[in-house]
Design a protein that fits this description.
The protein has 482 residues and is of the alpha+beta class. Helices cover 31% and strands 25% of the residues.
Length: 482
């Protein structure tokens, strides 16, 4: 059944929204929650025959366009004021409270704009991008829509640093639609249609690559910090004597192919780097089978990986979703994806990093043993000695060429800093959320303008396998060398 426009009546108010009857009731309740603030577990949505359950088949309810739902339920309780008026927080403004608690603002949903909000929050995880935007001199009144888009992104990020509550990205949304008309599509009743977050990500990266100011090396942020290089060899399998063709290409993200054999992200990436194709062989003078093998010859500081979860279903005319569980690590060693030459350049730094990590683990075990035995002797002196020993001059272990290449990853080691997830069965429906790392074992979950704190364990649950939030794009950052 096609998507229909429905109205939910609650607490004397009406909320218009779009319902996809092919999706689960859980997703519909999530939509209701995003507009009313009533958590799904408190919602009682009345349907013919009783209350809407999570396993109800929406297609069997006989719903029509314009259907009215009645809902009962209470929104989450507001935080109670401090019992003692002497508490300083109650004297603070909203902006001061947000700053004190260090909870960043979210972005208001302007009507199925969660794909855009999640993309922007993940991009804010790159401080160098915000610095580069701050140097952009363009305004909003020019004739070039894409220049206006970059200016609006700069202003939006600036406003988010000053805001305490959810901020409406109205100007940016307007400029995005002017630059890319596909994001202006509307459904029945003029409601904006859901869009693909990966398409939004890629279009923004392409605009920033073209418009951000160049630096001393005649490269801008995208070209230095988000652009890697492939070395690709094309070999004729039917004519081994034919000379192989070697090319060098650039990339701004890697793809993780998903098949029945893929359980881990690194295997999906490697699968995408090995291709089989057919083309005319100059040696055989006919069409022959070729193998194209790509390996990374430059790793960027920031490495986005897209899980290729959506494929086109011609009969249903939708981008269907692959729900298979594919695990991704919080710390990622990307050397397996690289050329032998680049792996050799990483070798000394990688060995030293392993040595440092082994010492850290041994120290933690020793401290745990002492606590269990109530043995605190010599802790203070040992800590001072350890601090002296752990000071490392990393230039002694890094390859000189990689040190000069500003914006590359000189070790091949990454840590996860942001995840963009999707819940639902189609790229053009469902809901997108951003999860951004703040500190060790502390993340911010950006569900539009609702921001909450989660832990590493919550991030590890985003690997797919069901109707829960599933990683669509993950963003890695080169590990800091302390």
């Amino acid at each position: 059944m096609p998507k229909i426009n429905v109205t939910v009546k609650w607490s004397g108010k009406k909320f218009d929204m779009e319902l996809d009857t092919d999706e689960s009731p859980e997703l519909f309740k999530t939509q209701i929650y995003s507009q009313t603030g009533v958590p799904p577990e408190r919602q009682k949505v009345l349907v013919k025959g009783g209350i809407l359950k999570d396993d109800t088949d929406l297609n069997k309810l006989g719903l029509k366009n314009g259907h009215n739902f009645m809902m009962m339920g209470t929104a989450g309780e507001l935080p109670k004021p401090p019992p003692k008026p002497v508490q300083f927080l109650e004297d603070m403004t909203d902006a001061e409270v947000a700053e004190a608690l260090d909870i960043p603002p979210g972005l208001e949903n302007l009507g199925n704009t969660c794909y855009m909000n999640a993309t922007l929050q993940c991009m804010r995880a790159m401080p160098e991008l915000q610095t580069s935007l701050g140097q952009y001199q363009g305004g909003l009144s020019g004739m070039d829509n894409r220049s206006n888009l970059v200016a609006s992104l700069r202003d939006l990020f600036t406003n988010l640093t000053k805001s305490a509550n959810g901020f409406p990205p109205l100007v940016f949304w307007q400029m995005l639609r002017q630059s890319f008309p596909q994001f202006s599509q509307t459904g029945q009743g003029g409601i904006p249609m859901q869009q693909d977050a990966e398409e939004c990500w890629s279009e923004l990266v392409s605009v920033l690559k073209a418009k951000l100011p160049k630096e001393e090396t005649e490269k801008n942020f995208i070209e230095r910090y988000m652009t890697g290089e492939f070395q690709t060899e094309t070999i004729c399998e039917e004519a081994p004597e034919e000379e192989k063709v070697t090319t060098v290409d650039t990339f701004n993200k890697l793809g993780c192919h998903i098949s029945i054999n893929i359980n881990y992200m690194v295997n999906g990436i490697l699968d995408s780097l090995n291709e089989e194709l057919e083309k005319t062989s100059p040696t055989l003078n006919r069409t022959a089978k070729y193998k194209r093998i790509s390996r990374v010859s430059r790793l960027p500081q920031y490495l986005p990986v897209q899980f290729v979860r959506f494929f086109w279903k011609p009969q249903e005319q939708v981008k269907a979703k692959i729900l298979r569980k594919v695990k991704f690590p919080l710390e990622f060693d990307a050397t397996e994806l690289c050329t032998n030459e680049l792996q050799n350049k990483f070798s000394q730094a990688k060995a030293k990093l392993k040595e440092v990590e082994d010492k850290r683990i041994a120290k933690e075990r020793e401290e745990k043993r002492r606590k269990m035995n109530n043995d605190d002797s010599s802790n203070t002196s040992n800590m001072a000695v350890d601090t002296q020993e752990e000071k490392i001059n990393w230039e002694d272990y890094l390859d000189p060429e990689l040190i000069k290449d500003v914006g590359c990853n000189p070790t091949g080691q990454y840590e996860l800093v942001a995840v963009l997830t999707h819940v639902g069965r189609s790229a053009d429906s469902g809901h997108y959320i951003a999860w951004v790392k703040k500190a060790e074992n502390e993340w911010h979950k950006f569900d539009d303008d609702k921001v909450s704190v989660v832990r590493d364990a919550d991030i590890e649950r985003l690997d797919g396998g069901g109707d829960w939030h599933t990683a669509y794009i993950v963003l890695y950052k080169a590990k800091k060398l302390d």
